[in-house]
Structures
1.
Amino acid sequence: MGYTTAQVLKTCWATGPVPLRGHITCGFGAPRGQHQARVASTRSLGSVFDHVGVAVSDLTASERFYRTVLSALGVEPSHADAALVEWEDWAMGPTAHEHPLTRGLHVGFPAPSREAVDAFWRARVAAGYRDDGAPGTRTVYGPDYYGGFLLDPDGHNVALANHNSSAA
């Protein structure tokens, strides 16, 4: 019997680090041998990551921020409770002794167009989210990179980016 990524992450979040049998690692841990099932991955991040977990200082504020960010891309949580909020392979949970606050995170989400980057950024800044860089071309990241940046409740840099060379 397999477990969903949400089930494994929720258990791992509550227990501590260890590799799982199969092809995923429980970055937040569980006692050795506790998880016996392999978790099927959608490979939404290709072969780079199986999943990403972030420890946040205020789960409610972070959930509100990422719901706002990801809903603009048509992505809704696949799991949410008081211990874990997950959007398939992207999950967050509260800090604890075993899970100190994640620091220095930068994450970029793909936008379908430059207009979507602009609209997304304007609406989020107007809603009170902190600006970390107005939308624009940033050739340092690539010749066609166009992105807008915000800060999440813990100060992590979150980008919405488009790599289409057509002007906005």
2.
Amino acid sequence: MLLFNKYKNILFYTNNVINMSGMFNGCSSLEELNLSNFNTNNINNMNWMFRKCSSLTKINLSNFNTNNVKDMCGMFEECKSLTNIDISKFNTNKVTNMSFMFSNCSSLININLSNFNTNNICNMSHIFDECKKINKNNINTKDKRILNELNI
């Protein structure tokens, strides 16, 4: 359900939503997104959620609850203008698919994956394809599987 407030901002009522697959997919003119008030407690699928948001430069996911999410495939794929992302609060214990998650995020410089748990991941293929600016100095993680995907 979408509601517009007096400032022309879109307000989302997400309390009963379980699937956010492709929610902002292809929003190529979207530059900033503050989803800090999203209720994501029931979400199990976030694949392609921000895919092809090619102009997105700022995104606030600070209060995302990902405790029930199983699929993050292509979640940020082709967010070509995104330079920094802090998803350190993401709980990835139930996630099984992270393939293409950051693929073609060619401007991505800093990424915080400090709490990522990849123990249940079945597919991490192409997670960092064409993320040429990411290296061991600007990725915050100790997860060996993630570092292996970066060839670090």
3.
Amino acid sequence: MTRNQPWNLSLWSACRGCSGVSDVCHFQREPFAQVKLVSVIKGTALDVIVDLRRASPTFGQHFSIVLSEEDGNQVLIPAGFAHGFLTLEPDTVLSYKVSNSYSPEHDAGIRFDDPLLGIDWGCDPASTVTSDRDRQLPPFDPTARYFA
């Protein structure tokens, strides 16, 4: 591992959910944008990231990976990406290491079921346990400047 990265993953948090719980497409705006290292320490989850860097050739595209306790895999999410997950087993626990503190004033998100993003969550989005706040998030805006 190289030590010359401009970020430090010094903060840790965990999230626990029953099967079918989603926490979807959140990010923090500058100057509180976060690099995240996400893993599952119990159970299995579908992890999704969306590139929100306007100058990126992959702007508006997403990537998904199944993270599991059994596989021990992780995903490193750069700043400038939205992040969401769907738990696939009861009592799934995700672990986050992040590079910046949570700032409610800089917290933002986009709708997980936005047709422009076309994310395949592997289930009917209406059947997931999603907070009212997440269901009220705005759709993805291809003209927006979420990040430079």
4.
Amino acid sequence: MRTETLQHIALFDKCKNFTRAREVQAAGLYPYFKPISRSEDTVVVIEGKERVMMGSNNYLGLTHHPEVLAAARAALERYGSGCTGSRFLNGRRYRPPFARRIGIKLFAGLVSLIVRQRLTDTTSGFRAMNRRGIILFADDYPHDYPEVEATVMVFRHRLRMLEVPVAMRERAAGRSSITAFRSVYYMAKVLLALFVGIFRRNVVPLEDR
């Protein structure tokens, strides 16, 4: 059996040659993305059945709070296609761990250069999108650590996104799953994903689809 060395492996060939997902999608089936018909706190309805939601970032259970929904709608109506809540625009001192702080500043500076707009908190998962943004992400949404890539996608599809100040508190108890090693791994992986995303050829404005 011949063992290939890393020098002989084309890094992106396996990704480009994987067509099964789009073939199934072209047939009208979506095996990887199940539409949610109703979402209430930790329970969602998928294909007419109630399921326990274990993949949400709704840590505080405020996703469906009337005041949160009203504020998100007001921000969308004022700012355009989408808005992101930034921890660093409200005048309060939010101080994440050192390794994470390095990553936040790195990606904020890099994405600001790519999209030509100053952004301060590209790793914030607190965001809202209007119909056009939802259509974009329903068709193609980054996996693993999506916040940074998704921000670039919004601008590359000629949509508009601005940051609004939000108040986020530091962890009061427990331990973060993102260790110093994982922070470095995260930064390397997202940098690679951004590099690949910049040179994607299938970025098409929504109105041309």
